[in-house]
Amino acid sequence: MAKEEPPSTSKDLQELQRKLSLLIASVQSNSKVVSFMKSPVGQYLDRHPFLTLTLLVFVALSAVPVGFFLLLVVLTSLAAFVGVILLEGLVISVGGLALLCVLCGLGFVSLVMSGTIMVSYMVISSLINYWFSLRLLPQHNSSGDCPLAVKSAHIEGLYQE
């Protein structure tokens, strides 16, 4: 069996070499590759194969860390976006609750103030009416009539006029 493997291995290697040659030929015949190889950078890399290989290995090896970095950037941006939305929602909720508390407090204060104003109006108007009725009594009281009779006569006189 060991003697039979080398001929099949050599056939496999020949087949692999033929496929690689076809792949290289197709890449070299590509119009974009031809235009790049005619540029000064392409000519420089063609004259310095070690530098070209180093650059190719560097690009291939740096693809994974750059990919992870870009993934980190995208995930961080998404997290920040979601965080901003959550933070904005939290701020709006807290602000809404604060506004609700302030408006409830203002409603209570307005009820107390309107009640105070109404009671004050009723008390002041009663006091003013009482004060003016007492002020009118001494003028009519000089005739010697009873204060209640004077008051009723005064009221009747107002209605007759």
UniProtKB/TrEMBL annotation:
InterPro entries: LDAF1 (IPR029709). The chain crosses the membrane at residues 50-74, 81-109, 115-132. It comes from the Eukaryota. Pfam families: Promethin. Its main location: endoplasmic reticulum. GO terms for cellular component: endoplasmic reticulum membrane; lipid droplet. The keyword Transmembrane applies. Keywords: Endoplasmic reticulum, Lipid droplet, Membrane, Transmembrane, Transmembrane helix. One of its GO terms (biological process) is lipid droplet formation. It is a multi-pass membrane protein. It is found in: Endoplasmic reticulum membrane; Lipid droplet. Coiled coil: none annotated. Belongs to the LDAF1 family. This is Lipid droplet assembly factor 1.
